[in-house]
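Appendix B, example 12.
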Amino acid sequence: MVVVLAVTASATYLFMPYISGMLTNSGALRKNFRGEAVPTGMGVIFIPVVLMASIIMLFIYETDTQLVLINALAASVMGFVGIVDDLLGKKNIKGFRGHIRCLLEGNLTTGGLKAVVGGLAAAAISAVISSNLLEGLLNTFMIAMFTNLLNLLDLRPGRAIKSFFFIWGILYTFLSVRGYGYILAPLAGSLAAYLPVDIKRKGMMGDAGSNVLGVVLGLYCCLGTQMHQKAVILLLLVLLQLASEKYSFTKVIYRNRVLRYMDALGTGGAGKYDD
């Protein structure tokens, strides 16, 4: 996978200025946690990069064609629905429950659209990789929850990306997913090149990026895990989701010395920690 990592990192580095310019010229600027106006939706760059890497893998590596294609499709769908939310979303409606409440009241928000499309994408992926209905349900909810978790973590520079690599390391160490590293390789190379932009506050990847990180990580976690492992992981994801509705992840991180250090690593300081 060295070729894939090198190509995706190089392509991301070369095309980032074009993506940044496109977003800036289109007025896609949002204030970050420090009040600085920076281009948002920078994560849209992951879509063409993952597609390009998938083509390379299909030609030069022996991989599961079906998995490579479903991974590329999932990343593309979630990336595009994410950029819609980044550019058109109203920030006064927060949380999963807030968007679902609006949907039940007959008002579709961009966050509600993202939840619906994300759920359908997760179900479509599960239909491909699951062997029975129960496993399909577990996989669907796992992928959806992973997508939402990475979205919740994307509140400070580099946090979602660091979390992506950390969770990958945990899954690689404790679960039987090592043979599916090619699922994450395209995104890993792109993230390595993009990370300096994020942690230096030159841009925000937004939902266009965090959605891609989450859905790809969710697919990776579903592959090679046993049913009891899926159940435990899903329970943890649900608990984190419920906790996020009551507690600020940022404040929890700030109160822990180790987490605070890791969160601020490379950013030049902790900055403000109020959400």
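Residues 2-246 form one domain. The radius of gyration is 18 Å.
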